[in-house]
Specification:
mainly alpha; 76% helix
Length: 164
């Protein structure tokens, strides 16, 4: 694809779809359970306040009440992450792995770690072990999205290097 903006939008779409898919696998299936019986909603180990926010207090989170809006929003984050990647990657060592790890670290520390500290820990009184589990989920999500972005973005240069 010759148009760098169009390619970045495509890369971001792939990243955003990956972000959504891996969030469903981690938080939805494992964390919350498909029908609400997951470990993150277990009242014997989870903050009552956090459980109430996710399941009882009106207005329920949009991811629960209107998930399409969140799905689209995460696609837009993926596109934003792709533009950030395209901006920073030239300063990083070459290679999908080294660039993906850097992108994952950037997203994890600037978004996900901050989120867990400021909201579940600060506002909801979430227990430390639940925060640790969520940080594992977020790390998996950050790595999956970063590897998707780096792989698609670097695909042509990675295949050129193998044919030489």
């Amino acid at each position: 694809m010759k148009n760098p903006i169009a390619k970045t939008l495509l890369v971001g779409l792939v990243g955003g779809l990956t972000l959504n898919f891996v969030m469903v696998l981690t938080f939805r299936l494992i964390g919350f359970g498909w029908h609400g019986g997951g470990i993150l909603l277990n009242p014997s180990i989870q903050s009552r306040k956090l459980i109430a926010v996710w399941t009882q207090m009106e207005l329920l989170p949009l991811v629960v009440s209107h998930p399409v809006q969140i799905f689209v929003g995460l696609i837009l984050f993926g596109i934003g992450h792709a533009f950030i990647y395209r901006w920073l990657a030239p300063a990083w060592p070459h290679g999908i792995k080294s660039r993906a790890w850097r992108m994952a670290g950037l997203v994890f520390f600037l978004s996900f770690l901050f989120w867990e500290f400021f909201t579940p820990f600060n506002q909801f009184g979430e227990p430390f072990l639940m925060i640790c589990l969520e940080l594992i989920f977020w790390a998996i999500i950050a790595l999956a999205e970063a590897f998707a972005i780096a792989t698609v973005c670097e695909w042509k240069s990675a295949t050129k290097g193998k044919s030489s």
